UniProtKB/TrEMBL annotation:
Pfam entry (one): TTC5_OB
The name this protein goes by in its record: Cell division cycle protein 27 homolog
Sequence ranges of the TPR repeats: 116-149, 236-269
Domain of life: Eukaryota
Amino acid sequence: MSAIIDDKVVAGAKSSNTVKEDPIVALTERVNALYLFRDRYFETHSIDEAIRKNSDVEKEMKDTLSKFDECKGYEIDGSRANYYYLKGKALNVVDRFIPQAEELLSKAVKLEPKLIEAWNELGECYWKNDDIQQAKNCFIGALPHDRNKVSLRNLSMVLRQEQTSSMEQRIKNIQQGVEYAKEAVSLDTTDGISWAILGNAYLSSFFTVAQSPTILRLCMSAYMQAEKDIIAKSNPDLFYNKAVALKYQEEYSLALRSFENAMALDPLWETPRNKRDELLQYLKDIQNSINNNGYVKPKRLYQMIRALDIKHLGPYKGGSYTSGEKSIKLELIPLKELALGLNTEKVVFGKVVCWIQDSDCVPFAFCLVDEQKTCIVVTVYNLAKGRGVTVGDSVGIPEPFVIHQKFSYMDNDFDYKSIRVETPVVLVVNGRKLGREQQASANLHTFKKTN
């Protein structure tokens, strides 16, 4: 990599006859070409060459930097800020932090405080170096000069990573991050990177504010828009984060394939492979637990089922319950009679025979067996840390929402039904409705590779 050029050398250099075009124009074109090479790599290379992408980008970066060395002999006084910005941007093309890029970009913004692009690049430098506060200062500092999409979406990213002194402030940051990302999208609805970052903002909201299906749908909608952009869909982060969202929509087959897409785009990034393998193991554990009634021995299972008592349905045992000012009828039905989707005015009841460990702890999953020995998995969202049910508990679930998983993946066949419970407060455990203290949102750290 070339050394930083001294201000005086650049400003006072003598003109040469070998290059006739404006060096700043030439360097701008060269740096833009470097970024196009990186961002549109898979337009000129097959996915099988993904493992070479980083080294190919590094080579292009070095070739680009050599052009800056060729311009040492040219009079570019008055353009020093742009010169430093362009060279810093060239160095910033790689994922890792390069101190020289920070030094050059810092010089650029000191010489030209209104150079928005330099502020954004400098912010990204700090971001790569995990200096969140300095990155935030750069992006905030750029906005008064121009409400631009890059500063806005980067600020959305930074707010999600910023350390906060309270959960209240954390939630405020996440919500503000969503607003910044939405504004970035509104400035250019064709920019897939902005859409991807909006999707990530919604995903953070899902884990920090509320595990709501509505938020997940907004998240998925943003990712789908992002995929329309060739640059965004060349980014493994998009498919990794989309896979995380799909997992919590319980679209497991699509989630596994989305993790695979991330792996294909960046074969050296281990996180997607690890998360894919963890999800696959989780699904196998569910399938095996259902097939084996939670591995409870027949005699013990018989005793548990015999102990089922209608009085343990608590407020649901009388054939109706009150939701707000509304009275809702409930009919107790066997698990095998459940229809797919929402089972209105129905309630199911059974014994917990096991729970299934998931590395992310979201959702809380357990197997329920009823009097007819039908086994089903129950996934509970928005459960407070350390809360849940234990083996042997009697659990009643009103108006259950049922999903059928049926697909094959890597020689594994999955075919089972599950009940998705959005909040634990609807559950009746051992005759008592769970209290509000059982409800909380989970905070999951997932998608920090670049955004």
